[in-house]
Amino acid sequence: MLSKPPTLERWFLDGTDRPIRIRFPKEKVSNNSQQLLQERVFHFSKEKIAELKAKANAMVFSNYKISSLQALMAHLWRSIIRNQALKEEVKFVMVIDFRPRMNPPLPRNYFGNALEDAIVIMNAEELLNQEGLGKSALEMNKAVASYTHEKIVSHMKSWLEDPKLLTVSEMFADVVDMGGSPTFNVYGVDFGWGKPVAVRSGPGDKSHGTIIVFAGPEEGDIYAEVNLPYKTLEAMGKDYEFMDAVTPAVGFFTAAAVKKITTTVRSSL
């Protein structure tokens, strides 16, 4: 029995003619070549994230309050751009949940696609200068705050006028994009095997520059899966400014998780 059963009733704009016919040429299915990517998982402790948040907010002279996640994503974005071929203009895409942003709000357990992409565009030099952490985090904050009921409905109406689907390579070409959320209670799920020791995502919907974030096993910690070419990930690992905020881990797991796995294996022998 689910404690919070999903709400399956669909929400549509008033006057929507259903079903919606979407054009999707066959050549789009086959023409989706991907650059060879690797994935590296970075662990950020609650304490290090708090330091980044305080630093970003100290750079922002406004009424905006930078969140922990915005400060962390700004820190990651800066390292990725710093360790790639420098481009004049760079983009960061955040997937935001618009359920609570609608008027009236959609139910929290609304089962369906209720997401929008908030996009930040910056000059690379501005992103990487001394005030870049605060500036980029502030732009993320503004981008998220701009998604009101009216803006979301306007986007939906525009899409209905020319409905189409994009491939992963089209959506995320030359951008850094973030998905997932540290607010998901991934460690509270027990399928009868006990509390999870680690959580990772699969290969779907990943492309160059994709970041997937999860809560860590310790409260306030965040794990970030970063998908990039090997050379970029290797350079990030040698980036002192970036790695200063990263918590060392044993392989893919924390030391506590490894100890738990070892104890479990020994007890079963």
Automatic annotation (TrEMBL):
GO molecular function: transferase activity
Gene3D superfamilies cross-referenced by the UniProt entry: Chloramphenicol acetyltransferase-like domain (3.30.559.10)
Alphabetical UniProt keywords: Transferase
InterPro entries from the UniProt entry: CAT-like_dom_sf (IPR023213), Sec_Metabolite_Acyltrans (IPR051283)
Identification of the protein by name: Uncharacterized protein
Naturally occurring in which organism (per UniProt): Acacia crassicarpa
